[in-house]
Design a protein that fits this description.
Number of helices: 3
Number of domains: 1
Number of strands: 30
CATH architecture: 7 Propeller
Shape: globular
CATH class: Mainly Beta
CATH superfamily: YVTN repeat-like/Quinoprotein amine dehydrogenase
Strand order of the largest sheet: 1-2-23-22-21-20
Distance between the termini: 45 Å
Largest sheet: 6 strands, mixed
Radius of gyration: 20 Å
Helix content: under 10%
C-alpha cells in the first residue's frame, strides 16, 4: 500500500486517510466478481450458508426488494423481484433487509418507512417465507408487522439468534425506544412483540426541531435509535444490545428482554449529537461508530472502562478513520481485524483495526462512477450521501457484497480474505452473521429451531 496521509482534527486522535489518483478505481487486491445493475438500491444482506447463495437488496424508493443468486458469483442474476402494491401512492420506501431461520424454515423481512399522506403509515416490515428458493414461485408473504401505536415504520432492523434460542428481529421505531419481535410468533399469526429497549435519554432535538451540525432528517424522524447491533458477550454470558441514537451510543443487557438493563454508554463526545451506527468487535472490547454528517470520520471507542464500571459514560474515542475527509463513510461490517465500509462516494473501503488507535486502509473499490461533486447542490450531509449505501460479508468464503444507490449490486473479493472465523484470530466467532441452528458462539446450546 502507498504511504498514508494523516490529518489531525481538534478533539480527535490522528485520522488515517487513504487517497488514490484520479481514475484509479480500486486497490490491486480488490476486484469485482460480478455486477448487477439495479434501478435503485438501499441496503443489502447475504445469506451465510453456501447452499443458499442468495443476496437480498432493498429497492429503496420503489418500495420492494430483489433476490440475486450468487450460486455462480461471476454470473450473479436476479431471480425474484417484489414490489409493494400501489407503490406510486406510498410516501417513502424500503430500507433494511434481514434473513432469519426458525423451526426449520427460512424467512426474509423487508422493512419500510412510509410517511403520512400515503398508505401503510403503520407498516414496519413484511415477512416472507423464502425456504423454497431458488424456485421463486415458492416465495410467500406470510405476515406484516404493523405498529399502530408507533406509526412511521422501521428505519433499521437487526436479526439475532438469542441465547434463549429465539430468532428475533430488533427494529427502530418512531419512538423513544426499539421494539423486538419473535419471528416464530409473527409467522404464527400473532403480534410477536417480545420486548422494548428504551432510550435512556430524551432526544434534545425532538421531532421537527432544527438540529445544526447533525443530519436533520434523522433527528426529526427518529426520536430514539437509528440502528443497532446485538451480540453475545462470552465473558459475562450476556446478550448485549448496542444502540446508536439521540445523544450517542448505549449498551444494554437484553438477556432478559422483559427487563433490559443499561450497561454503559458513549455520550458527550465532541461532534456526536446523534449516533448513527454502533458495531463492536467480536470480544466486545472496542466499537466502531458512525455519525451521519459530512466530514465525520468513523470513530473507534474502547468500551472497557464503561463495561468495568470505571466510568459512568465514555466520551473520548481512541482512534478514527476516514477514506476522504471531504466525504462520509456509512455502514460497516466488522470481521476482526478488518472493517468493511460502504463509504458512499468513496465506494467499498476496507481498513485494519488490529491497533484501534492506528487504523489503516488495506483495500478499496470505488464504484461511484460519477464526479465527486455530484449531488453537492444538496447542502451538508445530503450532498455526500450518494453512492455505496450498504455492505455485507459472507463468512464462509469471504464474498463481499455492496449496494450502490445508483449503480446496483456489486460482488467483490479481497485477496487473502477467503473467509472469516473469529477463532482463527483468537476472538469469539461473533459478527452480524448468525448461527441460526446453534445460537451465539459460547452461549449455552439450545434446541435447534
Amino acid at each position: 500500500m502507498r504511504p498514508m496521509l494523516v490529518l489531525g482534527i481538534a478533539c480527535l486522535p490522528a485520522i488515517a486517510i487513504a487517497q488514490h489518483p484520479p481514475g484509479e478505481h480500486n486497490s490491486p487486491n480488490v476486484r469485482v466478481v460480478s455486477h448487477v445493475q439495479l434501478a435503485t438500491s438501499t441496503d443489502v444482506k447475504v445469506e451465510q450458508e453456501l447452499s443458499r447463495p442468495y443476496v437480498y437488496v432493498s429497492s429503496g424508493r420503489t418500495g420492494g426488494f430483489v433476490v440475486v443468486s450468487v450460486k455462480d458469483p461471476a454470473r450473479a442474476r436476479v431471480i425474484y423481484n417484489w414490489q409493494i402494491e400501489d407503490p406510486e401512492l406510498h410516501q417513502g420506501g424500503a430500507l433494511s433487509p434481514m434473513h432469519l431461520k426458525t423451526n426449520g424454515r427460512y424467512y426474509f423481512t423487508q422493512s419500510f418507512q412510509f410517511r403520512q399522506g400515503g398508505p401503510d403509515y403503520d407498516l414496519g416490515a413484511v415477512v416472507f417465507d423464502v425456504t423454497g428458493l431458488p424456485d421463486s414461485s415458492k416465495v410467500k408473504e406470510v405476515a406484516r408487522i404493523r405498529t399502530p401505536d408507533t406509526p412511521g415504520g422501521f428505519h433499521e432492523t437487526f436479526a439475532y439468534k438469542h441465547s434463549d434460542g429465539r430468532a428475533l428481529l430488533f427494529a427502530t421505531t418512531v419512538s423513544q425506544g426499539a421494539s423486538v419481535f419473535d419471528i416464530a410468533k409473527v409467522v404464527a399469526g400473532g403480534p410477536g412483540l417480545a420486548g422494548r429497549i428504551p432510550l435512556p435519554v430524551a432526544n434534545p432535538y425532538g421531532t421537527g426541531a432544527p438540529s445544526p451540525g447533525v443530519n436533520e432528517l434523522l433527528a426529526r424522524a427518529l426520536p430514539g435509535y437509528h440502528d443497532f447491533y446485538v451480540g453475545y458477550d462470552m465473558a459475562t454470558k450476556r446478550d448485549l444490545f448496542y444502540g446508536a441514537g439521540a445523544t450517542g451510543y448505549f449498551v444494554y443487557d437484553v438477556s432478559n428482554l422483559a427487563e433490559p438493563k443499561l450497561v454503559t454508554s458513549i455520550t458527550g463526545v465532541a461532534g456526536v449529537p446523534f449516533g448513527h451506527t454502533f458495531t463492536p468487535t467480536p470480544d466486545g472490547r472496542y466499537a466502531v461508530t458512525e455519525v451521519e454528517y459530512q466530514y465525520a470520520p468513523l470513530r473507534i471507542f474502547d468500551l472497557k472502562p464503561g463495561l468495568d464500571g470505571q466510568v459512568k459514560t465514555i466520551s473520548r474515542p481512541v482512534g478514527a478513520w476516514t477514506p476522504n475527509w471531504k466525504n462520509l463513510p456509512h455502514n460497516h461490517e466488522v470481521r476482526w481485524p478488518y472493517v468493511f465500509v460502504s463509504s458512499y462516494k468513496d465506494g467499498l473501503q476496507v481498513f485494519n483495526m488490529m491497533d484501534p488507535t492506528n487504523p489503516y486502509t488495506v483495500g478499496f473499490y470505488d464504484m461511484f462512477d460519477a464526479p465527486d461533486d455530484f449531488g453537492s447542490q444538496n447542502a451538508g450531509v445530503l450532498g455526500s450521501m450518494g453512492g455505496t449505501f450498504g455492505v455485507d460479508v459472507r463468512n464462509a468464503d469471504g464474498l463481499i457484497v455492496a449496494s450502490d444507490s445508483r449503480f446496483g449490486l456489486w460482488a467483490l473479493k479481497m485477496d487473502g480474505f477467503d473467509g472469516w472465523n473469529g477463532h482463527q484470530w483468537g476472538m469469539p466467532n461473533q459478527s452480524s452473521a448468525q448461527d441460526w441452528d446453534n445460537g451465539p458462539d459460547g452461549a449455552p446450546k439450545q434446541k435447534v429451531s
